[in-house]
């Protein structure tokens, strides 16, 4: 229910935050009390604002229109920040509770698509998300970035936030899913150094044991 509610909000057009007004209890259009409360949440949950996300270039991608951003920290999505600009916003607690509930997942990742009709955007987004899960599996991780094969080299977890968005979903959907999967494998290889740059310092997650590689479910 929480996920569906946030998804519906995500599809609504983003309202302007209004001009920045200094000297009247606001900072960049956000009240000082609200900014302090969000800062407290970041510190308590060891999370960060969307400004910590950085773009990553994928060399010679077969599919155009892809934007990749990544951070070695857990970052809130910029589409949700409009619900945090006021302490009185009715969705504020829902959004913060959603993030707090997934704080123990090492890797946060999401896909996105825009500029086309909803049905095309939806298909492109599903393909990106599915391909990312399969790319993680191919590199020995579950969907949350935990190592599946405990004997394989490398960190026990991938930790941070990864977002893959297409501005040309029709182009992406004109390719085969195998092409999309190949692209997401490229993406994962490009961002893996960022997602492992702090080793396991941020997470106490352990490698996954008893994982069924065929159906992607834990035994």
What can you tell me about this protein's structure?
This protein has 219 residues and is α/β, with parallel strands linked by helices. The protein has a domain at 48-77 and 105-218: Ribosomal Protein S5, domain 2, CATH 3.30.230. Helices cover 36% and strands 16% of the residues. It has six helices and ten strands; from the N terminus they run H-E-E-H-E-E-E-E-H-E-H-E-H-H-E-E. It has helices spanning 2-10, 32-45, 92-101, 118-138, 169-174, 177-195, and strands spanning 26-27, 30-31, 47-48, 54-56, 66-71, 74-75, 107-113, 160-166, 211-212, 217-218. The protein has a four-stranded mixed beta sheet, covered by helices on one side. Helix 4 (118-138) links the parallel strand 7 and strand 8. Helix 4 packs across helix 6 (177-195). The longest helix has 21 residues, at 118-138. It is globular. The two termini are 27 Å apart. Mean pLDDT is 81; it is low at 11-30 and 202-219.
List the helices and strands and how they pair.
Layout: H1 2-10, E1 26-27, E2 30-31, H2 32-45, E3 47-48, E4 54-56, E5 66-71, E6 74-75, H3 92-101, E7 107-113, H4 118-138, E8 160-166, H5 169-174, H6 177-195, E9 211-212, E10 217-218
Parallel strand pairs: 3-6, 7-8
Antiparallel strand pairs: 1-2, 4-5, 5-8, 9-10
Distance between the termini: 27 Å
And the CATH topology of one domain? Ribosomal Protein S5, domain 2
The CATH class of one domain is identified as Alpha Beta
Query: What order do the helices and strands follow?
Result: HEEHEEEEHEHEHHEE
- Kindly state the number of beta strands: 10
The share of residues in extended strands comes to 15-25%
Residue stretches low in confidence (pLDDT < 50, at least 5 long) are: 11-30, 202-219
Shape: globular
Mean pLDDT comes to 81
* Assembly annotation: single chain
Task: Provide a count of the helices.
Answer: 6
Largest sheet: 4 strands, mixed
CATH architecture of one domain: 2-Layer Sandwich
């Amino acid at each position: 229910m929480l996920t569906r509610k946030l998804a519906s909000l995500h599809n609504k057009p983003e309202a302007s935050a209004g001009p920045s007004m200094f000297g009247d209890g606001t900072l960049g259009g956000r009240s000082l009390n609200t900014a302090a409360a969000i800062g407290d949440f970041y510190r308590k949950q060891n999370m960060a604002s969307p400004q910590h996300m950085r773009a990553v270039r994928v060399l010679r991608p077969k599919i155009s229109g892809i934007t990749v951003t990544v951070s070695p920290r857990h970052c809130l999505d910029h589409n949700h920040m409009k619900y945090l600009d006021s302490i009185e916003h009715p969705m504020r607690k829902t959004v913060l509770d959603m993030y707090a509930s997934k704080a123990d997942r090492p890797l946060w990742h999401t896909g996105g698509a825009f500029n086309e009709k909803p049905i095309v955007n939806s298909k492109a987004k599903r393909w990106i998300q599915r391909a990312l899960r399969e790319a993680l599996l191919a590199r020995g991780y579950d969907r949350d970035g935990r190592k599946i094969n405990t004997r394989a080299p490398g960190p026990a977890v991938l930790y941070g936030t990864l977002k893959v968005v297409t501005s040309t979903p029709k182009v992406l959907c004109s390719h085969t899913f195998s092409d999309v999967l190949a692209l997401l494998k490229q993406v994962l290889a490009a961002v893996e150094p960022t997602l492992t740059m702090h080793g396991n310092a941020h997470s106490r997650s352990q490698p996954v044991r008893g994982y069924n590689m065929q159906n992607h479910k834990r035994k």
